[in-house]
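Hey,
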Amino acid sequence: MLYATRFRVSVRQIPNFLPLSALPPSCSCSWTSLHFHSEPPSLREVDDAVDSFTRMLSMRRTPPIIQFNKILGSLSKTKHFHAAVSLFQQLQVRGIAPSIVTLSIVINCCCGMGRMTLAFSVLAKIFRMDYQPNTVTLTTILKGLCLCGSVEKAVRFHDRVLAHGFRFNEVTYGTLINGLCKTGHTSAAIQVLRKIPRSLIFGLCLEGQYKEAIDLLSDMVLRNITPNVYTYNTLIDGLCKEGKIKDAKSVLAVMTKDGVKLDVVTYNSLMDGYCLVNEMRSKNLVPNTITYSTLIDGLGKSRRILCALEVLEKMHDRGQPANIVTYSSLLDALFNMKQPDKALMLFNQMKESGIDPDIYTYNILIDGLYKNGRIKKAKEIFQDLSIKGYRPNVRTYTIVINGLCKEGLLLEALALMAKMEDNGCLPNAVTYETIIRALFENGENDKAEKLLREMISRGLLQG
């Protein structure tokens, strides 16, 4: 309620609000001028709806508002917006209190006619009546602003709504991003794109809707939209706090498979849900390779590399062999601590001990080398992958493309993006975002916009 009260004040401050009574009975907006285009309405349908509505109004005992909503909703769905708003005015004249459904229908009609001032007026009425607008209603207003060409106002409206505790869904973001793209605000579209996953999943976790959050995560992965570490952390933290350890482990597995690096926040969340090694031993539980590897990764993320190496020695002493995951964690930690030479030594030591690196390990190696300025070495290892029988995945290509972009080698990055498709590996949303951002930063706006349109046409950005 506090959020609603604060937002209500903000809504009243929006300029040029008009009371709903300002809408004249015979609106000057013609059917052909509607922003939501439709076939010419059947006059008979409208007449029948008006007759039914009028009869209900004249009844001695007024029917419940839901009956009026059915007629208004039917007119709205068939895009008879003018008629629906006119009938709503009659409700107001008779003093019949509308429900939140009534007002949401009227907002849809106002947006359909491009009458955004009136739409905001109805939204203000929603808050005055202590109702809470839902995501669909707020998205309708946002879409209306975009269709009217007021995309910047749509962005401000989006930011204000979020600031007051309301949440949007993926339909909202698709609407906003497409509106930004169509009006040339491509840089702003990229910024919104980067905020989508965390915002949606955070909202679901906040409401305790963890199943829906996991479903959304799965849907994003299927669409080749890779959630970032913050998105995964939000979900893992919520699941651990709820004691849903099995679900948290499943999300962690997806996170690892996607090549998203765990950070200190991830491990802080996991430690809330898992027993630490010492606690396990006190309960006569024997830590296995997975347990030790998890601890080593956590120590590495906390920059306690010496402690991590000590745990590695204890693993050998207690008969728990290190595996590729263990070494990959240590490699990642060493690169993050700007120790590429030690990381390369460890990599060679791992191979000498009979453990073959997988593509995930090579991704860590190439990424670490690029980030530590070892460009030549990173390129050599990447070029040797196919010779050694490894097939680079989308994460591998994206790492190299990012490295090339950081070095200003945009032509090489674009060529590699084309090559990855020739090799049967399609770029995902992260790949596109990486190169699009670099192109914008280097003033290559035409190329960036072309890739953004391509990204949308491939369904990597839903709208």
